[in-house]
Amino acid sequence: MDLPGPIHDFLLIFFGLGLILGGLGVVLFTNPIFSAFSLGFVFVCISLFYILSNSHFVAATQLLIYVGAINVLIIFAVMFMNGSEYYKDFNLGTVGDGVTSLVCTSIFVSLITIIPDTSWYRIIWTTRANQILEQDLLVSNAQQIGIHLSTDFFLPFEFISIILLVALIGAIAVARQ
Q1: Mind listing the pLDDT tens digit for each residue in 143-161?
Q2: 49: in domain
Q3: How does this polypeptide assemble, per the annotation (predicted)?
Q4: How far is residue 142's CA from residue 4's CA, in Å, rounded to a whole number?
């Protein structure tokens, strides 16, 4: 979307806050149904980020695949579980003790130390070089999507994969209960 600067910045901050609150809802809600709906809200916020960055096809794909298929599948799986037995046997102390918090803290600290040391200037010039190559070459839409996913939208693509990995690990933990 070609929006004026302040409106674009406001929407980025608004969707970012929605993304953070939705992620906290996934982690902090004790009811799995609420967590699944919060995960759907996170996926919608990510697709809105794609719309703001003028990649409408990736946004539509995000909505159809992640919200429309994967999140609905997670909600159906949670709804088929017997809720009363789940809450009787569920003890928060057995979910990971200190190992999970240690792993999450180490990942957070490593990201906090790596991100400021990254040479963003070279990444920007690599992206611009890829855009010049795209203009010179006749590439199809599928190739352009592949190029954009591996250059411009690499970080959001990896965030989605991490969110799906966390959802998969959570589903395995729930299934083991």
Answers
A1: 777 777 777 788 888 888 8
A2: yes
A3: NDH is composed of at least 16 different subunits, 5 of which are encoded in the nucleus.
A4: 30
Range of 19's domain?
A: 5-90+138-176
How many residues in total does the chain contain? Answer: 177
CA dihedral 55, 59, 60, 66 (to 10 degrees): 150
CB distance 66 to 43 below 8 Å:
yes
CATH of the domain at 17: 1.20.120.1200
Task: State if pTM tops 0.85.
Answer: no
101: left (phi over 0), alpha (psi -120 to 50) or beta: alpha
Measured between alpha carbons, how far is residue 9 from residues 31, 41, 49, 165 in Å? 34, 20, 11, 30
Residue 119 maps to a domain = no
Domain assignment present for residue 122? The answer is no
Q: Which pair of tokens denotes residue 8?
A: 């674009």
